[in-house]
Specification:
Blueprint (H helix, E strand, L loop, with lengths): L8 H26 L30 H14 L18 H4 L2 H9 L1 H6 L3 H9 L12 H14 L10 H7 L4 H44 L6 H8 L4 H5 L2 H24 L17 H7 L4 H4 L14 H8 L7 H11 L20 H7 L4 H5 L16 H10 L11 H10 L15 H4 L2
Helix pairs in contact: 1-9, 2-7, 4-7, 15-16
Length: about 450
């Protein structure tokens, strides 16, 4: 006769494992696809060189939209470290500045305030003395860019907190606005709840199947019309001792163990000389999360050569003093800066990102020419309380970027013939750094 053959517990456990693994992979893939991190820099606006030059003079009610937009980017990138519009920070509040001074006076003041003070200008000398003879840095901005800043200042007068950091601004640094961040957070919670519910349902299902299987066995044992084969199937037991002693199982376990050891060995050898995740303790507890994230200080304000030099310099103590001669002067960490200046000794910052001497890397070529933002290589620097090496900085990591990164050849005659030759041989393929010889050995190795 045909009898019901209940599945054994190992089969049920295997089915449970496969189902749960598939659900977990699907759930993990969803947030991974959604986590396409926007490669935006820490800069709150554009750099001075990249700011549109379409500027209009400020009027009583503000300038035109283009001037205000350009001024917004320039103000946040150059002025917010010391100034707000409607409140005093390190320097005076800028509300009503165009009524106190003319644009013709403000332009040379911003370009070189020390020169205006040295000329004996009464207003300039008064400001200089009022703020403890704190010299305002000089800015290499054009007349139009300076005018656009005051167009933005005029438009923002009387709106409250000026250009100080807000929740929306801080969220924008991460590449998301508040609504997107909230949606993503809520979606993550729903996925977690869904996984928990799924696990509970599967556990209940397994327990139910085991109970049903045992009940079916009890029912079948009470029947007297079963033949010998049916009884044999009903009373069969899984021989775990035989399973453990199986030569095939031992061969499989031994092979897997050998492969794991081989893999770990290769990974250890390949990691020699790599310092990804390196996070040394610095002599002064400087927080990038506070300065670059919450206060949105432009990277170039401290790392002054980030857009124009082969190396991004370490800030000197006098840059710190531009703000900290007035702010948090009693902080134990800030007093370390004072001591370094008094002793005429540089602060011994610990270098984090190191490349071997055999590799050539030009910082300005990537930031100014290619337009890459800080997070492309340094990760979410605006969220780091203590900076660590985010990227691997290996040769393969660099080459992969060169193979995928397209070159912006628009309105650049240098690339015209190169793009034509590329399109002739590789129609439809993007013109990448690799297409321009970016993977040749001599590009990075002397």
């Amino acid at each position: 006769m045909n009898s019901i053959r209940p599945r054994s517990l190992p089969h049920l456990l295997l089915a449970l494992f496969l189902t749960f693994a598939g659900a977990q992979q699907a759930a993990a893939q969803a947030p991974a696809d959604a986590a396409d991190v926007k490669k935006e820099g820490v800069v709150p606006g554009a750099t001075a060189a990249a700011t549109p030059a379409t500027i209009a003079a400020p009027a009583a009610g503000g300038g035109d939209a283009a001037a205000i937009a350009a001024g917004d980017a320039l103000f946040k990138g150059n002025c917010t470290q010391c100034h707000a519009i409607n409140e005093q920070v390190v320097g005076p509040a800028l509300s009503g500045i165009t009524k106190r001074r003319t644009i013709a006076w403000l332009i040379p003041w911003i370009k070189n305030s020390s020169k205006v003070v040295a000329s004996g200008d009464e207003y300039a000398v008064a400001i200089y003395n009022k703020y403890n003879k704190q010299q305002m840095p000089s800015f290499a901005l054009s007349d139009k860019e300076i005018t656009s800043i005051f167009a933005y200042v005029t438009a923002e007068e009387g709106k409250g907190g000026g250009a100080g950091p807000t929740v929306a601004n801080v969220a924008a640094v991460d590449g998301k606005d508040g609504a997107e961040a909230g949606t993503e957070s809520g979606g993550g919670k729903y996925v977690d709840v869904l996984l928990i519910v799924l696990v509970v349902v599967l556990i209940v299902l397994v327990v139910t199947l085991v109970i049903i299987g045992n009940l079916m066995k009890d029912v079948l044992r009470g029947r007297k019309d079963l033949d010998g084969r049916d009884v044999e199937i009903l009373e069969q037991r899984f021989d775990w001792n035989k399973f453990y002693r199986s030569p095939k199982l031992r061969a499989i376990v031994g092979t897997v163990f050998a492969l794991v050891l081989l893999y770990e060995g290769v990974q250890s050898v390949m990691a020699v000389g790599l310092t990804q995740g390196y996070q040394p303790t610095q002599p002064i507890a400087f927080s990038h999360k506070l300065h670059a994230g919450e206060h949105q200080i432009n990277c170039a304000y401290c790392h002054t050569s980030v857009y124009k030099s082969k190396s991004a310099n370490i800030p000197s103590a006098n840059i710190c003093m531009n703000c900290h001669s007035q702010i948090k002067t009693e902080s134990p960490e800030i007093k370390k800066i004072y001591r370094a200046i008094e002793r005429k000794q540089p602060i011994q910052w610990v270098r984090i990102h190191n490349l071997p001497d055999l590799a050539y890397f030009n910082h300005s070529q990537h930031t100014q020419v290619a337009g890459l933002q800080c997070q492309t290589c340094h990760g979410p620097i605006q969220n780091m309380e203590v900076v660590y090496q985010y990227s691997a900085l290996t040769m393969g990591w660099c080459i992969n970027c060169h193979r995928e990164m397209p070159i912006n050849a628009k309105d650049n005659k240098y690339y015209d013939n190169l793009v034509k030759l590329h399109d002739t041989k590789n129609a439809g393929a993007p013109f990448t750094v690799s297409s321009n010889g970016g993977t040749e050995c001599s590009k990075c190795h002397y």
